[in-house]
């Protein structure tokens, strides 16, 4: 799985078709749906679900290119959170959650506020490959912040992103917590799950804090 830093990868914005979010049963009730999380959803889904799988989506790279003035930032100091960009050679690890029956409408209602209204994310159908059964892919719904949304910040050096993250916090907590929890998740996925962009930002945060600490001595 090829990974490049943000500077080298020419990422095209992902179109944001908004597929109908669930397949209704004959009686019109939604039957079941998989929701793919690749940012805060991997550690804080905050909706009830019946099953979950660790795995990945192909053809997308995760980037800290979405601004956030609510959850992890403010109007004065916007934070940076992740979105997916189409990238032929990209691969993004995360968690897919299965919601069934009433869980479907409850999850979508909740995520619409958390992701769309407060975060600027749109929905997109993706193919998810469970880590344990990659030969049995699942169709999942992902929340993607396209470059057309007003909060989109786009590319920046990993050092600049690290500095912005260190200086931002919002209603859900500090932006650094967001970065480190995602890094922790990726550690748990094992050596086959690489995200050079994420790792470069974590390294830049470490270097910055080390310099600050040395300056205090
Ligand atoms: N849609 C991505 C990113 C989600 C994300 O991080 N969204 C922000 C909205 S700006 C959020 O929910 N933050 C809650 C938090 O930071 O705890 C995912 O599937 O995880």
TrEMBL record:
<dbReference type="GO" id="GO:0061928">
    <property type="term" value="F:glutathione specific gamma-glutamylcyclotransferase activity"/>
</dbReference>
<keyword id="KW-0834">Unfolded protein response</keyword>
<keyword id="KW-0456">Lyase</keyword>
<dbReference type="GO" id="GO:0007399">
    <property type="term" value="P:nervous system development"/>
</dbReference>
<feature type="region of interest" description="Disordered">
    <location>
        <begin position="1"/>
        <end position="29"/>
    </location>
</feature>
<dbReference type="InterPro" id="IPR006840">
    <property type="entry name" value="ChaC"/>
</dbReference>
<dbReference type="GO" id="GO:0006986">
    <property type="term" value="P:response to unfolded protein"/>
</dbReference>
<dbReference type="Pfam" id="PF04752">
    <property type="entry name" value="ChaC"/>
</dbReference>
<feature type="compositionally biased region" description="Low complexity">
    <location>
        <begin position="1"/>
        <end position="13"/>
    </location>
</feature>
<dbReference type="GO" id="GO:0005794">
    <property type="term" value="C:Golgi apparatus"/>
</dbReference>
<keyword id="KW-0963">Cytoplasm</keyword>
<comment type="similarity">
    <text>Belongs to the gamma-glutamylcyclotransferase family. ChaC subfamily.</text>
</comment>
<keyword id="KW-0914">Notch signaling pathway</keyword>
<dbReference type="GO" id="GO:0006915">
    <property type="term" value="P:apoptotic process"/>
</dbReference>
<keyword id="KW-0524">Neurogenesis</keyword>
<dbReference type="GO" id="GO:0006751">
    <property type="term" value="P:glutathione catabolic process"/>
</dbReference>
<protein>
    <recommendedName>
        <fullName>Gamma-glutamylcyclotransferase</fullName>
        <ecNumber>4.3.2.7</ecNumber>
    </recommendedName>
</protein>
<comment type="function">
    <text>Catalyzes the cleavage of glutathione into 5-oxo-L-proline and a Cys-Gly dipeptide. Acts specifically on glutathione, but not on other gamma-glutamyl peptides. Glutathione depletion is an important factor for apoptosis initiation and execution. Acts as a pro-apoptotic component of the unfolded protein response pathway by mediating the pro-apoptotic effects of the ATF4-ATF3-DDIT3/CHOP cascade.</text>
</comment>
<dbReference type="GO" id="GO:0005829">
    <property type="term" value="C:cytosol"/>
</dbReference>
<comment type="subunit">
    <text>Interacts with NOTCH1 (via extracellular region).</text>
</comment>
<dbReference type="InterPro" id="IPR036568">
    <property type="entry name" value="GGCT-like_sf"/>
</dbReference>
<dbReference type="GO" id="GO:0003839">
    <property type="term" value="F:gamma-glutamylcyclotransferase activity"/>
</dbReference>
<dbReference type="InterPro" id="IPR013024">
    <property type="entry name" value="GGCT-like"/>
</dbReference>
<keyword id="KW-0053">Apoptosis</keyword>
<dbReference type="GO" id="GO:0007219">
    <property type="term" value="P:Notch signaling pathway"/>
</dbReference>
<keyword id="KW-0333">Golgi apparatus</keyword>
């Amino acid at each position: 799985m090829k990974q490049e830093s943000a500077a080298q990868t020419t990422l095209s914005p992902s179109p944001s078709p908004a597929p109908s979010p669930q397949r209704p049963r004959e009686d019109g009730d939604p039957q079941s749906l998989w929701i793919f999380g690749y940012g805060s959803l991997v550690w804080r889904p905050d909706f009830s679900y019946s099953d979950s799988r660790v795995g990945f989506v192909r053809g997308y790279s995760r980037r800290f290119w979405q601004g956030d003035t609510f959850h992890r930032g403010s109007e004065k100091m916007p934070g940076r959170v992740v979105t997916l960009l189409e990238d032929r050679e990209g691969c993004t690890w995360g968690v897919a959650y299965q919601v069934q029956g009433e869980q479907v409408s409850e999850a979508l209602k909740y995520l619409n506020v958390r992701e769309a209204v407060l975060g600027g994310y749109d929905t997109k159908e993706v193919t998810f490959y469970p880590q344990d059964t990659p030969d049995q892919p699942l169709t999942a719904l992902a929340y993607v912040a396209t470059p057309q949304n007003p909060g989109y910040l786009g590319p920046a050096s990993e050092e600049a992103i690290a500095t912005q993250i260190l200086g931002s916090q919002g209603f859900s907590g500090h932006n650094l917590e967001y970065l480190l929890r995602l890094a922790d998740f990726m550690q748990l996925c094992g050596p086959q799950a690489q995200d050079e962009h994420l790792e470069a930002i974590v390294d830049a945060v470490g270097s910055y804090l080390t310099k600050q600490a040395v300056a205090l001595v």
